[in-house]
# Entry
Amino acid sequence: MPVTATIAGIRSPADLQAALQGAQYLADDGLATAAYLALALGKPLLLEGAPGVGKTEAAKALGAVLTRQVTRLQCFEGIDQSAALYEWNYPRQMLAIRQAGEQFVNVYGDDYLLARPLLQALQAPETTLLLIDEIDRADPEFEAFLLEFLSDFTISIPETGTVRAPRPPVVVLTSNRTRDLHEALRRRCVYHWIDYPDPLLEARIVMARASSVAQATADAVVASVGLMRQEPLTKPPGVAETIEWAEAATLLNAQGSTWPAAFRRAIGVALKDQDDLTYLAPRLDAFLPGEAA
Amino acid sequence: MYQIDGTDLPRAAHPFVVFASILRANGFAVSPDQTMAWIEGIGLLGPGNVADIRRSGIALLAIPHDRQQEFNDLFDAWFLGVSMPAALEGEEEDTEAHEPEGVETEIPEEPEEDEAGEDATELERLGQRALIETGDDALARLARLGPARLPKRRSRRRQIARNGDQIDLRRTLRAAARNDGEIIQLAQRKRRMRQRRLVVLIDVSGSMRDRTEASLTLAHTLVQIAERVEVFTLGTRLTRITPALRPRRLDQALARAGALIADIDGGTRIGDALTAFLDVPRYAGHARGSALAVLSDGLERGTPDALILSAARLARLTWRFDWLTPLPIGAEPQTEGLRAIRPWLTSLTDAADTARTVDHLLTMAHAWRRAA
# Structure
């Protein structure tokens, strides 16, 4: 049987779903199954989806459930080994060489090694959840390197030797799908596409995340965001935008703004593109939640 | 039909192994260890329901989101005995963006890419001679000067340099350690230069008929010489033809491209095609920071609203956004669409023949610097 020690007390996707809910994250069945399988089989979990559907949040919630520290590697174009793996502390090495004078000094010890996220995860595989965020932003060179890392979980440092994890750490990768990931990378992972949640679930997410928001407001905002997502927008509002919009409108309402007006004034939190705003402007009232007090 | 190796496989696992090979036959990339992981996963989930098996299949076989419907149909057909919806193979999609798969089957490419050394230079020479034989000196000029003259950008990656902009601490320290900790010379690094991505959108509608073949030939040369280039055709739909233009031989490449473009010499809906281009995040990603050139006369049926909107978005996304039109420009562009989008264009260039298009491509890096 594969590794099960990583998920003490969680014996089925339903258990995981309940545990995630305890961590303020409401996962649907698909995500719970994929995450459970990734943990049970010791494979990386690859989450894809539009921006703002809660991919990074899912990883953080998973970290909370497993009581692991989330080590995050934010990818960017040109990310290289010194940002992802390790770097030597050169000024310190230089000082050590100077101070040693005629004495022997080993400047390639652990004292001089700055561990970056991937190495950190290997050094403490039992207590770390490695989050490789927005892998689609990194260039293919880095993706190829990651491929090797994810199959062996070893890092070789020429000066000292190879660091190997006794058992694979929990790894979550996220992608906004701005480009297609390499098939080989996808193959090594358990894959899940996070879609926009259905209205009921989204309303529950809003309530769970924003305690100040009333149930009626949450329902109204979710319905209105659902309508907006049907439109051909450049940047359709994600779950994060739904939550913020509900919160912002509630805040404005508390300061004396009436209901539809509060939503209208806070629209910038939901729609973050000038073209989208101009596109919807003539019909905006149809999209705004009505009475929600 | 499918030979299953390893007879010690549990009986219960057979349907899944066979299903994996069905998936493979339908163009899903499923590796044996993914199949094993799936069977293991089903074992873990216990004798549950079909939904669990389906969900674990999607997760562990890593079925891409846009092919999940196809997967579900096959799954239903195999496990539930539901008959397949008609025309699963090669079904016509409603979306404007069109990226056909598996086109390699039609014309086998001669294995010439992996040949190295003298053979490769031999082929290079042949390739150039073929271009000259078609009588097109402009393309030969593009092939000769392009690698040096196409616009470049600074990469985020650094390389060793004699006079760079950053000290290479690693090499400096290593050199110092050899000299008893005495720093004699600072090793340096600088940012590498990479060719900026080119995106070429070719109008293949009826009004551009005279230029279509020349434009495709030009695009073929670009794909051969440029490090990063993407080519799409615009008509009533948007088609990505970059992979089709990869074969070194022009006739092969054009035949492949021709097979892909379903809307050649048809009507024009440039605005809609550009919108489709922007709506597929992977395509729009190509445009970010790129030198984007549209080869079109800008003759649009109907109102140019969609054209104007997408031109504005392209202008913000790209590094430079040029419109190469075969029509004489004069003081005012001839078509309504072009007049409307003129403010968004980096340049509106006369490209009545290949030579002028090549002029533009070879000078745009320089022209930009002068303008800035």
Observations:
- Residues 245 and 254 of chain B are 7 Å apart (CA to CA).
- Chain B touches chain A at residues 29, 31, 34, 37, 40-41, 44-46, 51-52, 55-56, 58-65, 68, 155-157, 169-170, 172-173, 176-177, 180-181, 183, 275, 278-279, 281-282, 284-285, 309, 312-313 (CB under 8 Å).
- The mean pLDDT of chain B is 79.
